[in-house]
Structure formats: structure tokens, C-alpha cells
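USER: My hope is that you can spare some time for a protein that puzzles me. I am handing you a single protein, as its sequence and its fold in C-alpha cell form. Walk me, if you will, through where the backbone shape changes along the chain. The protein I mean follows directly.
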Amino acid sequence: MWLLALVLAYLIGSVPTAFLIGHYIYKFDIRRKGSGNVGATNALRTMGTIPGLVVLAVDLFKGVLAVLLGQIFDGPGLATLMAFLAIIGHNWSIFLEFKGGKGVATAAGVILAMSPISFFWIALIWAVITILTRYVSLGSIIAALVAPFIMLYYHRPWPYLLFTFIVAALIIYRHKSNINRLLTGTEHKLGERS
């Protein structure tokens, strides 16, 4: 049952929301537009506000769904593994030749399902940093840095804490090109369209 659950979680995460909307509605490949990323930020930049918000909501829901299914099937241990596989699926989608997004929205959905109060503070920090600097990537990096400590403060189960530390490191790693652009002053700001 665990094996089937993990495969299901990976497939849920692999659903390439931004690619599907771009391909079937806007008739272009989002991987060849803007930053080339198949996440909500690039969807916002290349397709507009409504598609960007739809991508954000669906990618967030993938994380929520993985955790809820894991909790129903077994408990925190399986929920944690399913959450991780959903993020792996989002980042390395079987439907996109094992390429994908950076996992921020899906990880946010996971945190929302694991600890709504932690999600509130993490999302607030992300929003403040993003609004003040207009750099979505910087908001995501700082939110990833503080997320494990906020989860620790609220005494979440140890599998959830371990997950948060690992995924925070993964998200920061996936943003290495953004970090380089931030350091060189060439990172795109929120509101800039391709």
C-alpha cells in the first residue's frame, strides 16, 4: 500500500499545471517563455494574473492532497513521504522529461496541511519580503530558511520537522540560478512581464 501511495503522490506532484495551461489555452510552451520555469511566477509573468493564480492554487493543492491522503492511509510517516514525493514529482515531472518547477507552491501546500499556523507565518514572511523587494525568489528563499524553525516552534511531529529541513535545503538549491542573478542585480522583479 505504501508503494502505491508513494507512486500516486509522485504522479500528483508531476501534473505540470503551468505547462498544461500554457499549452492548451495559450498555445505555447512555457518552458520556452520567460525564465523557462513551469511554476506560478513564470506563469504570472508570461500568461497574466489569473493564470498565475490558478497555477499557484493547483500546485499548492497538490501538496495539500499528498499530505491528506498520507494521513488518511496511515499517519504522519506516510504523509511525510507522500509530501516529499509530490514535491519531487513537481520538480522532476515524468510528464516533462523529468524536469519541472522549484517546488515552492507545492511545499507551501504541504506546510498548510501539516501546520496551518506555521503556514500563516511562513506565508506572511514570504509576502512581506516579496512586496518590499519585488523579488519572488528572495521571498521564497527566506521563507524556506525560516520554515523549519517555525515548524520547530510549533512542536510538529518529528517526520514533519525532518521533511521541512530537507525540503528547505532543496528549495534553496533549486534557486541557485536566482541567487546568482540576485547577487548580480539581474533577477526579474514582480510585475515585469516577458
In short: The two ends are 45 Å apart (CA to CA). The first helix runs from residue 2 to 14.
